[in-house]
Structure formats: structure tokens, C-alpha cells
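User: Round two. Same drill as before: sequence, then structure, for each protein.

Assistant: Same drill it is. First protein:
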Amino acid sequence: MGVGAVTDFSLQIVLEYWMGGHESFATAWEQLDVNWWQVFSSAAEALWENKYGSTLLSAFSDVMNYLTSTPQEEISAAGFGQSLALGAISGYLGANAAAYVGQIGAYMTKYGPQAPLSRLRELGIHPFFFSLADFRKIAIAKLWLNPSFTGRGVALEELVSYGRYRNYTWVNAAGELNGPLDFLLDGTGVQLKTMAEIAVSGPRYSSVKSKVKKGLKQLKRAIDDEQCQTGRLDVMIPESMDQIRQEVQENLRREFIGNTNFPDFQNLEIVIGTFKE
């Protein structure tokens, strides 16, 4: 089969084990959907000339770190194997993120987005994926489909920090959660709100309006506290809501920005969008 194919096949098993949160490799094997085209393609690639050099280097680094940081009496075959497997995954995926966007997306479909995204962070390779527009689009779509994920808002925020807000300072990256600002650039403070549903009228619109008003108040507070000079409220919505985005945005601007009953909001801005990019 060749070293490339064996490595690729082995890593698919390890990926299934890790991304799926299985208790054993036997369970992972039973759930594995082998990408045979990928395996046979890898059989044609030279080990050091292509993608596998980074795999072995990272695996070796993780194994050495395990051996040197673990007391001798606590070193075990299981720990050694896990460090080898995780090192191999991080090196392999980090060097070939673009080629694995679809596969990680498939894991998000299979197990929900929370576990795969968490695994990428734990491996320290999430920036390689989050910086890819194709991956962000897939991950954002999967997150909108999983309302039970309590960390969805923060996850969406982190993804768009690599896209729409790549030039901004992501305030929450420093651990300042629930503050008045999420992003900051050249004196402009941005608060990002994620809303799975919007409407042009009725109770749902009233709910949107209430959240927007709260966000505008927080932006005004940030300006008063000299955290920024100007403020913008960005409302992120799923693609399914895009057809009414413009109307809702105009209604909200007229309701708050152009309304003399809210003088504190006159210099603020409201933008509604999918923010895929």
C-alpha cells in the first residue's frame, strides 16, 4: 500500500476516534467512513517530499514532550500512543488544512459542530482551518443548525474574527467576555449580536428590537467610558433570513438611529448580515 497510504489510513482512524469522542479505537473503527480515494492518492506521494514530513516531525515532538514532562513511573503505553496520535494529527492537519475542510465538515454533520471545533482548538491547529473561507462557511452553517449548542454565539464570533473582522482586535480573545465591545479598529467599537431569527413585524420583531436597543446602549456606554470613539452594532443572521435583512435593517435604523427620542444613538450604526466573509 505504501507508507503514504498507510499513514493516511491510520490518521483517518485516529481522526474518527478523536473527532467522534469514541471510548476506544475499536469503536472508532466501527464508525469509520474510509475515504479510499484519499488513501490511494496518498500512496503516490513521497514521504518527505510532500505532506508527511510535518506529520512525523509533529508526532516526534509531541512524544518527546510527553516523555520529558511525565514522571517515569507514570509513563504508559496508552499515554505514549495518545501523544503519538495527537502529534500526528496536529502535524498532518496543520500542514494540509485546505485538503481536510470537507472531512472536518463531515464530522460536524455526523457529530454536531461542537466536538470537532473543540478538538481543533485542543490540538492548537484551529487557526489553520478558521482562516480558510470555505471552512468558515461550512462551520457557520453547521452552527446555525445546532441551536442546542450553548456556546454557539462565541463560536460564531471566533470564526468571523478570522474573516470579516480579521483586521480588528478581537476583544474577547483576551477573555473579556460579556463586555460592551467585541471588536475594535481605529477607534470604532463593534458589538456583534447573533440572531437565529429576525422578522419585519410582530412579537419576533419586538424581540429583535429589544436586543438591538440593549446593544446600542452598551455601545454608548463604551463610548462614554472612552473605550472607543464611534460604535457599530453588527447583527449576524443565518442565510435563511437574508431575504428580509435589508427591510429589518432599515426599520431598526429608522426606529433608533433616526429617531430623536433616542439622542444617545444618533452617531451609532446598525448593520445586519450573514457575515460569511
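Second protein:
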Amino acid sequence: MKLALLFAACCVLAAEKAVEERLWPPDHRHDAIVEQGRSQEWSCRIRIHSGGNREVSVATAWRRQPEGTGRNAPRECAVQWVGNHRISCQGSINPSTRVLLLFGALSGR
């Protein structure tokens, strides 16, 4: 019984953990660490770092913004750089509808 409870707790913790991926723009001056979340608040968080590994900005695909406003965020984002200063997040919000979000890499907006 204890082993089953421990296994169930490990499965829940693994499901809560975000999956990370690192992407570079064409000029390699920045990098982006992409977290695919399994959170109620956000579906994707993109942390932009400078060449010195300093965090420059954070772009978030919100499901529910901190003040409570609901958004149509994709379930999971396919993230890619669009040039050297913009990054995109594309995914589906339901089987028939896809969204594309564009963020400025230096502002996160």
C-alpha cells in the first residue's frame, strides 16, 4: 500500500513539472529557454537570456492572467525564432482552431 502511494505521488510530481527546451536565434546573441507548462495559469513560458546568461525578458502564453482574465492560450506551443528579435508560439486551442502568438524578445510582449 505504501509503495502504491509513493508511486502515485511521483506520477503527480512528474506531471506537474515543466518540460524545458533551449533555442537560439540566427545571430546567436540571445537564447530562449522554453518551458511547456502543465499549469492552470500558463501553457508556455519563454525566458530570453543574453549572451552573458542574464535573463532579459519573459514571454508567457497565459491561460489565465494573474488578475484573473481568461485567455485562449494553446495547449502546447511550438516555439521558434522569427528573425533575431521576435519569437513565436503556435499551437491549438481546440481540434479545429490554432493560434499564433508573437513576442518581442527584448520586451516579452
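Strands lie at 19-23, 30-36, 42-50, 55-62, 78-82, 86-94, 97-104.

User: Perfect.
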